[in-house]
Predict the structure of Telomere length regulation protein TEL2 homolog.
Amino acid sequence: HLYSSAQRKVTLSLICRFFNSDIITALRTLHSYLDEGPDSTATSAERAEFRRAHYSSALQLLVSNIQADWLHQLTAAQRAELWDGLFLAGPPEQALLVLMDAIGELRPTSNLDHVVSITEKFLQRGRLAELLWSYCLEAAPSDSQQLRETLLGRISALPDITANKLQLNNRALFRPQQYYPLLATEMLTALEHTCQALRAGTDCNLTFVAQTLGKVCIQGHGGSVLAVMAPRLSACTRSDMVWQRVCWKLLENVPQRWMETVLTGLVQAVSGPDALGRIIGNLVVTNKKAQFVITHKLLLLQYKYEVLQIILGYLAADRDRRPLLIQVLRSVSQAWANSSAVKHTPLEQQLYVSKALLLSVSLLKDSEIQELQLLQCMLGGMQTHLDSNVVRIRHMGMVIGEYLSSRMDINGTKLKFEYDQDEETRELLSLLAPGACDEPEAEPVNSIYKSARLTFYHSSDDELTPYDMSGDQEISKASPPRYLRDCLEILISSEDPVRVELALKAAESLVRKNSFAAREISVQMSKVLLHMDDKYNINGFLYLRQATMVALTVTDCIPVAHYLTTEFYSLNYSLRQRLDILEVLALAAQELSKPVTEKKAASISSATTAESTPYLGDNPVHWQQVVEKRIQSKTKRLTKVLPVSLATPNRYAPVAGHFFFPLLKNYDKPQVTFDLLGSDHLVLGRLIHTLGLFMHLAVNAPIAAQMGCALLDFVWAVRYHADQMVRRGVLFAVCSVFLSMPSQNLLVDISDQLFETRSWLADVAEGDPDADCRSLAVQSLVLLDKSLKKQLQDPQAPTVET
């Protein structure tokens, strides 16, 4: 489509004339126009004309006739030589565009697989390097801007294009983990050819290679590419001025809109300031965009010490760049002396600014420091730091004050403070004499490309490395069960590890797809899964079992919930099994409370996970997140436009009581293997958290008020428990009650307990040793006060008397 209609007509008539004769002869004739050897029957003018005007159209015609009978009559060897070879012998940019268009247009058939295989060979045989090198030889662009932009897009987004089309059948070479390091190696090869050409007196153009590098980096793959390129460029530029000039020219030709991502990735990939200086030269002096990125964005808007050390060392290494180091020092000293910043910025940021100030001053000469006149900045900043109530900030001020006074030589007076050295102060003091960054020894240039090329592709069959098949596994002859009852029978009676694993992996999807059959055996299957052990060491066993039990509970709520809550207090269960019961009930309640439209997404997510998910109560921050999310949902924001969503029934509300109330019985009756109020406080904390989660999910349910009263009565007895996890669970449960219980019920049903509850929460917020407990108590007080205020201000609200 990038060629004129006249060119296409000439090409079509030419090829149709060929195909009217013998097919093999016609294909060999096409090959003669690409053959540069002495045996070629075409003249050089004919070959040049074919490459320029007809090659792309010829390939498009071949792809459009990929289903023709004559193609399938060729032997495999003939097809590889004559048909595939046409894509691997001509101008690489035209071949790549045709191949990528074909992948996007063809349907998933064997023909698509054939084109994909040719594309894979295209990459393996170094055709990308040839493509990049062909553009390096052009003194001026010979193609259109549209064609060049299209080609850049295909090269930089090849993994995305193939993944969108091939999906699970994508080739390994097309995946980002392999493709982008390969592309980096091909760019290095093109740069090596450029160096060789310059030594021979041939001019080269690095614009397209620079555009390719920038395009890849802006799409988020700069880390993979520069992790390969930076060490090689560092090694090649150690003693080779031609390589240095090539690198400088490469960076100069990167488009301004992509300069930031390239420099950011490069600074993070190089081994030290010397390597950075050899690769980019004085780019910060000649390019304003690069100067802003290096001296401002990377230094002052992020807090990575490694980047700080590299950039400051780079600025100090050259006479032309030292004025920028002084400019950076002025900015850093102003930030360090800013009293507002000292009071309101995080300690990590202040530590970073202190490191930047120390490193900058240590890299300056005494004469340069005297010209800067840092005395006022030092006195003001040091006073601000010493006035702080935070010990760490005072120590920073002392360390920097001592060093600055020693470098400024104020009438021979040097400040000296008394402070106890800790890890932070020792780290600051270690920066006063920074050593040179060690860089790896240079590799021979010839070995660089040989080793890199062999990593990704081979130039001939003789160099092929045999695959490591030591980890291969024999394909299983067993097939997964297709019916739920068959799955249950396998789990009960089979001793074959393979069949058991297949049944366990298929169980969840079978339950969700066959709800009628699942209801018939839901309790029996839950019992089997609850007592099932991982005696075959199945990968992801805990999660697979849990996901199936959750699916059973969601499908047949009341019977399964009744069975699990009853078994929770039964004899002869381990603590792990009791925790499993709570986890299953919690996950099932959460799924039931979500809209029905999210059910498929939950099933797909569970099918692709192979490890056990952690219990919600393991992370106390989760409780705060739940409460915070609920608080945010109750907060009105006039400037926020909420999306319109369709109302869907809450499947959890009608069955909330079946999850909640059975767990409140028998908690104070110690069993032979279970003492909930005694030594088994871990289970107690999980139980209280699970009940609080049930309460939270029951918002707007008719039974919410009854659940809230029962939950407060239950947790009241253990509010002063010695274990902090139990106390966190209690406070989470109280927050859930205040969030989910209607305001009028708070005032009417538990009015007798409100005053005492508020006093207890105030005591916890002030004196509990655990920070999470104090935070949850404060949130509970806020929620309680809001609910009571709202209720008392409503004239139509029912009172205690009514």
